[in-house]
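For the sake of transparency, this paper describes our internal protein records without simplification. Because each token names a local backbone shape, the row as a whole describes the fold. One such record is reproduced below, unchanged from the form in which we store it.
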Amino acid sequence: MTEQALPRADSIDASSSGVLVALAEPVGLACDTRVCFSMPTDDGMVHLLGRVRRVERGDDFRTYIALSLDDPDNEYERERWNDWLDGLRT
């Protein structure tokens, strides 16, 4: 299986354990596929491993993907992710 970057996505909702993203075009991802999720922050990109939990085509023709972020061995990036989320809440 080749590694191929997905098109840019807009984040719709995010928590410490997952994220919902929307893509403007269809993508071919199956549930339980392991992915690298990257999010730009003020101090650089956060990269976490996750799994595709759901893929749906919306009425607006965008593709919605729910990811669980299950990268317990990457404590540094998890902390940066949670700090970024906390910054959104303040």
User: Anything to note?
Assistant: DSSP finds one helix and five strands in the chain.
